[in-house]
Structure formats: C-alpha cells, structure tokens
Amino acid sequence: MCFEVMFVLYISNMTLPSVSQSTTTQTRLECNHLAFSQGNKSYFYNNVNKTCIIYPTIIYRKDSLVSHPGFEYFVEDGPACGPPPVPKGHKLLEVIGSPGNYTARYKCGQYYIHRQIGETRCIGNSDWTETPCQDFASCETIKECNSSYTTDGEYIHYPGILNSSSVRLYCHNMNTSSPKTYLTLNATNVFDVPTGRCYGGHGCEVYPYTNPAQGKTTFTKVAIDTEQMSSMNHDYTFTIQDFGTQRPYGWVFCCSLSNIAMCLRGRSTIDLTNTGLMISNSTSWSKTGHLSHFTVNRTDFVVQLRGDGSCGGARPTGNLIQFVKDQQYVMPDDTIDPQCSLLGI
Fold first, then answer.
1. Which Pfam families does the record match to this protein (predicted)?
2. pTM, whole model, 2 decimals?
C-alpha cells in the first residue's frame, strides 16, 4: 500500500522533500529490509502508523534533524537475514539484539504449542533459526506440550493442514518421547493377495501357485502423517496377518498368467466409516507391476479395489492416501482433549 504523506525534516540548510513517497510495513525491520534490499542507505519509520519512508543516502548529522511526531531516523542496521518469519500460528512480539545477533520473540496462536526452543535467532547473514510454535497435530507434539500424558488412547488433534479443526486420532507409545499417531479403523480394512493363479484358457479357474508377494493383512489402525493427513507406508503395528507377506495399506495385487482383466483376483477394502475422516477426492490409484489391471469402486468412506497382473495391480498414486475431515462426525465423549503445560510467551 503506497500513499503520499506531508513530512518535513531539516538538517543544516538541507530540507527533505515536503512530499515523499512512502509505504506501510508491519514492523520497522520490514522497512529496514525494504530500504536496503533496494540499495538505499537510510529510512524514517513511524511506530504508530507504521509509515516507512526510504531515503537514498545517509544523513550524517542526525543531531541536526528536527523531531517529527512518531518518526525516527535509521541508518543501515537490522538482521542480514531480513525480517523474521511469521508463519501460521505465530504472532511476532518483538525483535531485540544488536548488529550480527538478533532474537525474535513470538506468541503462539490457539491450537499451537510453544515448543521448547529458547529463541529464534539471526546470527551474521544466515537464515533465521526455527520458529517456536507448532500446531497441535501429532501425538509427538501433544507429548512435547505436556509430558504427563503417558497413556495410549484416543486424543483430539488440531492439524494445521485441516485449518486446525479437531480430529480424533490414536496415540501409541505415549510413555516414550517419540509416540506415534494412528487412525483407529472401526470396519474391516483388508488387503488380500491370494494364493494360486489363473492359467491357460480356463476362465477364472485357479491353479496352484505360490509367490513371495502373496499374503493377507487386516489393519485395525493405520499410521497417519498429520502434516499431510495421509497414510504412512509399511507400518504394521496394528495388523492381523492371515498368511504370507504383509501387504501395504491401500494396495491391490495378484499374480496370474491369463484372463487377468476378467478375473481380478486381488481384493482390497479401505473403510473409514465412523472414524471422523474421509478419503480425499485427490486420492487416486496407479498401475504397478506387470500386465496390470484394476478397478476402483469408491464412496467418501469406502474404497473397494480389485486388481491382478503377472504379477501386478495398483497402488495409491504417490504411495499415500490423503484424508479429509468428516464434518458430520460427532466426537465421542471419551476422547482426551489435551491441555498444554508449556504456555506461549
């Protein structure tokens, strides 16, 4: 936002332009960075109305300036890193320090915790160090927020990717410093690569055949990456193995030699009914393996997959399944609503 402002300062017999082009910035450091990133040498800043006036040269006799209400005059200073970052969930309180060593202080927003980071600093001309506010998104941040939580169970989370809206997720290994986050599945989620195969010109008749990929895995909970709100691969902590090799969540696979597209013997079911999450429309499946064929029958909560190949089938595109919130879901009363013992500054 730019506008014109009447501003008169005097130094010796020199008068600054009575009408100067100016802009507004949220902090003096932003004005500082704006001035010197464009090769200017000094600037005037008003802390009250946030007016920033950039001056191309240095006025060497600062004591000769006539004070103007609210304005101060500055020569080149401030962090070489530029203005401190203000990510989502952060409110910048102040920046303190001296040339070459600056510290930024923040207040964390609702559903964000103030992590045990002493300060966010700019030293020399490197980047600012990590900011302190972390969204209440995972079991690990809940544990960091309040170490008294040592019991595994269903906790309310506020993932930033869901605009900090509440979801119910299971925390495992809360008696450690690195608990993991899962979604409890209330319906059958099974991934079956059956034994045998279709062979020759005999329709879908199955002949004996074994392959290391064969196996049947049922998930009772699926590991969740709360930064992306997606499934995590190759976590079988909460599974039941009927036989053979553990099968990854969301894949469909089988091994046949003929009538592949007709038989589609591999079967998989994803069912998020009554979990509080739905399968995102952005989730899709792609072919994997050799001579692959597959079908997808889906609703917001359930996906039925059939697939086959030699050996082949389908996997989630990008190897993950994206979840979104079910806005109609009613959170059970027994869900733990975590309270933070680390208060923001």
1. GON
2. 0.68
